Amino acid sequence: MRDTRESRLLLVLLIAIAFALITVDIRGGEDSPVDGARQGAATVFGPIENGVASAVDPVGNAIAAVRDSDDRHDRIARLEHDNAALKAKLGSGDRNSSRLKQLDKMLKTAGAGQYGIKGAEVIAIGAAQGFSWTVTIDVGSSDGITRDMTVLNGDGLVGRVTTVGPNTATVLLANDPDFTVGTRMEATDELGFASGQGDRPFRVELLNGKAKINKGDRLVTFGSQADKPFVPGVPVGVVSRVDPSGGDLTRTIYVKPFVSFTKLDIVGVVVEAPRKDPRDAVLPPKPKPTPTPTVTVTVTPSANVPVDGQLQ
Hints:
Largest sheet: 6 strands, antiparallel, barrel
Strand order of the largest sheet: 1-2-5-4-3-12
Strand content: 15-25%
Radius of gyration: 26 Å
Helix content: 25-40%
Oligomer: single chain
Structural class: alpha+beta
């Protein structure tokens, strides 16, 4: 296109329309008027993203081995069986070895919480059908995925499903500024609401303004009604900072998430909630404090130095 006045005006107009759509989408939240267009985009472009990911990823088909854990009674046994099958398929490459460790850790997390999950791969970051902190995964409605399902990995809470296509789904990450989840403190059971802050720690508003919180305390999800969008007991993070209470009705703390949102690869969508709240069972064991070595220095008087310290 030649650089003319008309072409420049057209470019400015297109940019203005794009920013207008972004503003409408963000303010609309769950009821965004462009949600239908976003779902249509997921239907059209989802298979393309999935196909590209499969073409460049030799272990794409192996993930399907962990997607069928629907029987509640022998769920853990099936997950262990799937894990063994994946070990045989993934081989010994460095990348595959890393992904195998992720799968193994995720399956153990699911087993600890009694979550029925469908394994998935992250195939796109910041999908074209949204303007938030999102990823696209390679499972969709044909795999039993629906909107408002919890997404986790071996470390803890990843996010929730927001848009579903036939073969792909969009996940809103827990660090997105529009993301909020109910939380419960380990052991003390203090309740609060955690909100994402991008690449900064979660901001958590505790309902009890006088709650005694210490750096290093841990949080899990409190759970939602009918377990959507959040199942209970999923690890959220560790308290990294506590603001003074100041006599307010609520108290603000800051929490470092367990999940590294810049390193997402293998995740699991919770398709079956646990029978009962796992409470703190999914949290990893607390690291044991490393003892500080002490050194004792003993001074031995020299044979040539008398008691008064004067040399002979």
